[in-house]
């Protein structure tokens, strides 16, 4: 037996993305976004309402997308519930420090180990922001012996749209492009 829920945003896992931008004075800002994901080899799309961050994106035509992790879950949630329009020290209160991206005019949050550095390509329907990924950088602490991102060392979180919780991603359960070959 199946239960129908109607049209809902129930796709799992749902990434928790921290969108970083600079304002007109070069001050770093960040917000939490859950509705979005990769839409091509070098593109990402994020559905956002109207925020200080979206205003910044329209002015600078650039943004970063950091992946929220377990260690910084409270700070990542904070930047999602507090607006830079009402809290000028939002980044400091979150415990975030930044450096300027080498590739785009947007901040890299030092505390979050994985970041996509993007230029704004297009806005669809006034809220869907498509970015071209110019660079991905990762802190060495999440790299494996092969020099690539190691999910045994990196602990991204996912958002539960139904119960409004954050969950850490779990263990490896298979091998892509290999395990399915058993059924050939």
UniProtKB/TrEMBL annotation:
Cofactor needs: FMN
Flavin reductase like domain residues: 11-156
InterPro entries (UniProt xref): Flavin_Rdtase-like_dom (IPR002563), Flavoredoxin (IPR052174), Split_barrel_FMN-bd (IPR012349)
Gene3D superfamilies given in the database record: Electron Transport, Fmn-binding Protein, Chain A
Gene Ontology molecular-function annotations: FMN binding; oxidoreductase activity, acting on the CH-NH group of donors, NAD or NADP as acceptor
Keywords: Flavoprotein
Protein name: Flavin reductase family protein
Organism in which the protein naturally occurs: Bianquea renquensis
């Amino acid at each position: 037996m199946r239960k129908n829920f109607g049209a809902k945003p129930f796709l799992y896992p749902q990434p928790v993305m921290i969108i970083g931008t600079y304002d007109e004075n070069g001050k770093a800002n960040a917000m939490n976004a859950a509705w979005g994901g990769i839409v091509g080899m070098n593109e990402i799309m994020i559905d956002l309402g109207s925020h200080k961050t979206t205003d910044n994106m329209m002015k600078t035509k650039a943004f970063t997308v950091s992946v929220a992790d377990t260690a910084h879950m409270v700070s990542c949630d904070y930047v999602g519930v507090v607006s830079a329009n009402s809290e000028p020290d939002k980044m400091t209160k979150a415990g975030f420090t930044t450096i300027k991206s080498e590739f785009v005019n947007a901040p890299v949050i030092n505390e979050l180990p994985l970041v996509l550095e993007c230029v704004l390509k297009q806005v669809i329907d006034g809220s869907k922001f498509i970015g071209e990924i110019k660079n991905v950088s990762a802190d060495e602490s999440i790299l494996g012996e092969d020099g690539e991102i190691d999910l045994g060392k990196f602990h991204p979180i996912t958002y539960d749209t139904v119960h409004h919780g954050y969950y850490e991603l779990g263990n490896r359960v298979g091998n892509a492009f290999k395990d399915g070959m058993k059924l050939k």
